[in-house]
Amino acid sequence: MMTSTKGLDPKGLTYLEGEGFPRGLIDAMVALKKDCAEQIFVIDNSEPMNQPDGHILSKTNTSDGNKLCFEKATRWEELKMCVKSHIQIAGALKIPASFRLLNTATDGAHVDGQEFSIGQGKGGVYDVDTEVQTALEIMDKIKPHSRSPLTKSILQLLRDIESRKEEIKKRGKHVSVVLCTDGVPSDSTREFLVDQLKKILGESLPVHMVVRLCTDEPSVVDFYNDLDKDLNIRLDVLDDFQGEALEICKINPWLTYSLPLHRAREMGFNSPCLDNLDEGPLSKTDQKELCDLLFGKDKMYLSPSPELDPEGFLDHVKTLQQDQTEQWVRTINQSEQHRQCGAFVCTDKHANNQSFLRHYRQDPIMEETKPWIDVDLVKNPKEKMAKMRRITQKKKGKWFAGVLGIKR
């Protein structure tokens, strides 16, 4: 075991590796414990979360083994799977985490008020394994109901952090706040929320905030993107796994954006290269940092500089990938033949076509594994893209995505 995982017990390491987290990212997440005082998840369990336009990832048994696929689900089922994953990740890393519900839990979910936690050592006793199991059971019992008192919950949370900010700062730490929601506040206007947030956050709270959206409704997406612009804090607004993968593949199609990378971003993992994935083509510096996360700094230490020797750098990456497990990526079908593809690219004409994207998101998903980095695509983007692209074609009055990717 590498020295940088000394803060992780064998059980935690086994869990993270079993979930597909690369060793470099595990090392970085272990280091996160030194900087993160606590993770706080604000969970929207309001009635609209029962809308059936979510997706969950599941395994199906086939003649050639297990296949991963996306199945239609409610927004709540999608969010429940997400939160349960973060409960287990926090347990594996032994990062203190609390989970706050917008509405009181019902249907036998025994929650102290509207909050449950792991790794907090209540009563001086730490039993993370039991706490993780209890938290998972609570999530299974929660049923969405009522409205979305987001403003009240967010302001109360930030005031709680404000009361502890000097102690948190003195320890050189921060708090990660993850807001999981499908809507805008039902208990205030946007102007009131922004005004109150500016007053509280103006005190320089040690907060990293992530908004994990459980909807594609433009008004909701715009609401939180505008908050990002108005507030002078680190605020990341994330779609679900499928949506983020789609955006990233349009910008950095050489990367296999797998679920572990998405989970790291959801939990507020602070890394410029991950933050920039959906902002534009990654710089050479960001590419190097990303490879450190994927393969480990020890293995990337002797790699040539991507600025001075890009060919040598890519050859080094290609060699490292020979010992890596290929990552599962979602694929889309074209017509009813259910063709498999390794990455997604769409023509500029349809890049912002919402009806096209909705159609894509509803298509069946099939199994495909790919290396983390498509080295050939990075080396020869024009030539490879020309070979990969099958121009979007019109069939039966509907647009279907072309086949993308080269089978190895």
> Structural class, from helix and strand content?
alpha/beta
Report the end-to-end length measured between terminal Cα atoms: 32 Å
Output the strand order for the largest sheet: 5-4-1-6-7-8
Supply the CATH class of the domain at 3-238: Alpha Beta
How large is the radius of gyration? 22 Å
What's the helix-strand series? HHEEEHEEHHEHEHEHHHHHHEEHEEHHEE
Strand content: 15-25%
How many E-type strands?
Answer: 14
Count, helices: 16
Stated plainly, the CATH topology of the domain at 3-238 is called Rossmann fold
Percent helix among the residues?
A: 40-55%
Shape: globular
What's the architecture of the domain at 3-238, going by CATH? Answer: 3-Layer(aba) Sandwich
Mean pLDDT: 78
Low-pLDDT regions: 331-367, 390-408
Give a short account of the largest sheet: 6 strands, mixed
Q: How is this structure best described in words?
A:
The chain is of the alpha/beta class and 408 residues long. It has a domain at 3-238: Rossmann fold (3-Layer(aba) Sandwich), CATH 3.40.50. 43% of the residues lie in helices and 17% in strands. A six-stranded mixed β-sheet has the order 5-4-1-6-7-8, sandwiched between helices. It has a two-stranded antiparallel sheet with strand order 2-3. It has a two-stranded antiparallel sheet with strand order 9-12. β13 and β14 (398-400) form a beta hairpin. α1 packs antiparallel against α3 and α2 (23-35) packs across α11. The longest helix is centred in the middle third of the chain and has 21 residues, at 150-170. It is globular. It starts with 9 loop residues before the first helix and ends in an 8-residue tail after the last strand. InterPro entries: vWFA_dom_sf (IPR036465). It comes from Seminavis robusta. This is VWFA domain-containing protein.
